[in-house]
Amino acid sequence: MNIYTTTGTVIITCHKRTMPYLEQEVKELGYAIDETFVTGVRLKATVNECIRLNLNLRCASQVLYSLRSFKAVNADDVYNNLITYPWEDILPEPGYFSITSNVNNESINNNMYANLRVKDAIIDRVRDKRGTRPSTGSALTGAVIHLFWKNEDAEVFVDTSGDSLARHGYRKIPGQAPMLESLAAATIYATRWDRVSPFVNPMCGSGTVAIEAAMIATNRRPGLFRTNYAFMHLQGYDEQVYLQEDALLEQQIVEVPGLRIIATDYSARAIENARKNAVAAGVAGLIEFTVCDFAATEIPPNVPGIFYVNPEYGERLGEVAELEKTYSRIGDFMKQKCGGYFGYVFTGNLELAKKIGLKATRRIEFYTSIIDCRLLEYELYSGKRS
Ligand SMILES: C[S@@+](CC[C@H](N)C(=O)[O-])C[C@H]1O[C@@H](n2cnc3c(N)ncnc32)[C@H](O)[C@@H]1O
Q: Which end of the chain, N or C, is less surrounded by CB atoms within 10 Å?
């Protein structure tokens, strides 16, 4: 079977609470979704189609192509099943591969053991068929086989991505508490931004949100920054398919005349890093960077713009007292200076968010890998509300 041209079940994973935005992206690329779940979507596609998905999706983590589902009570069942799979048709010769897994089975208290049994099955099978032993390791730089095993239901996939797609590859200098690129992109999708009006991002830190906004408006895709994916390391890979998809990424970039993306931070170091990161992403010419207090940020008047801030959440008590004032000032600034805009505050501290003192029109749930977060939306009226 040539997995590049055979339609199979594909699971695209994402971070918790970003699924609706991933679903929308996948549909916009022309694929029908069969099922959605908390951390991903399921559809039908070939591995060649997975190439397009890998290069284009902003909210995804991995694109997994299913090889086989089976019942497994314990790790020996996994081994005994997988040694019957024709790995010699999937892995190139001499071949390097890695195993990843997501395991929740009562016989397993260490995922590494499940990974080891998958690895043993693949190596034993390939050695038996070819007389040579493929090499393995933890660096996701070659072929990647993924085991999903919940209770007695196991499914084995080729992970066509390898390293996570959630990092978009351009950002070189992280700064303080940077947002993950896939999360930043999902939160921008969640706003009411028309991708033409001004996008104003004070407290920009390393610039993730402003950079993602510039990339979304101009249709620059994460694949522009990455040259290695796991789909390149399987038998049957046709580089021409990748090169065509890659060339499309350049062709589909659009110019947005008059686009204004304004990014400020009171830290000169943050702005210096954000500017370097924007250069790496090829969007430095689209973002106006300034070192200033958030309240000195220019708000272009008489347009339905977006004001988006991601203030610190505060963990220590002294910090929280100081941040209460900052959140309250953000509320005052939005009310007094951002008439006609939609204001957004992305925060993991809902107590602090109360200090904003405005009524949120939406409270959109997100999750950093450890903190329950909200993107709070404020409709900011210009003049008197009728
Ligand atoms: C949580 S970080 C933002 C992280 C950013 N979203 C990223 O992905 O890198 C908050 C930023 O707000 C900045 N900041 C804090 N108080 C500020 C103020 N009063 N005016 C301007 N910037 C401020 C800090 O320097 C820091 O870079």
A: C
Cα 355 to ligand 1 centre (Å) = 17
Among 58, 82, 68, 70, which residue's Cα sits nearest to residue 9?
68
Ligand 1 atom closest to residue 270's alpha carbon, by position in its atom list: 27
* CA distance readout (Å), 89 to 118, 138, 159, 305: 16, 22, 16, 53
Residue 212 CA from chain centroid, whole number = 11
Q: Spell out the per-residue pLDDT of the chain, length 386, in tens.
A: 899 999 999 999 999 999 999 999 999 999 999 999 999 999 999 999 999 999 999 999 999 999 999 999 999 999 999 999 999 999 998 889 999 999 998 988 888 999 999 999 999 999 999 999 999 999 999 999 999 999 999 999 999 999 999 999 886 777 777 899 999 999 999 999 999 999 999 999 999 999 999 999 999 999 999 999 999 999 999 999 999 999 999 999 999 999 999 999 999 999 999 999 999 999 999 999 999 999 999 999 999 999 999 999 876 666 888 999 999 999 999 999 999 999 999 999 999 999 999 999 999 999 987 889 999 999 999 864 43
* The residue to which tokens 């686009």 are assigned: 259
Q: Is 266 in the pocket of ligand 1 (CB under 6 A)?
A: yes
Q: How far apart are CA 319 and CA 313, in angstroms?
A: 9
Delineate the domains of the chain, giving CATH numbers in brackets: 8-159 (3.30.2130.30), 181-221+259-379 (3.40.50.150)
CA dist 272 → 181, 267, 283 (Å): 19, 9, 14
Q: Whose CA is nearest to atom 3 of ligand 1?
A: 205
- Report the alpha-carbon distance of residue 159 to residue 354 in Å, rounded: 43
Q: Is the CB of 265 under 6 A from ligand 1?
A: yes
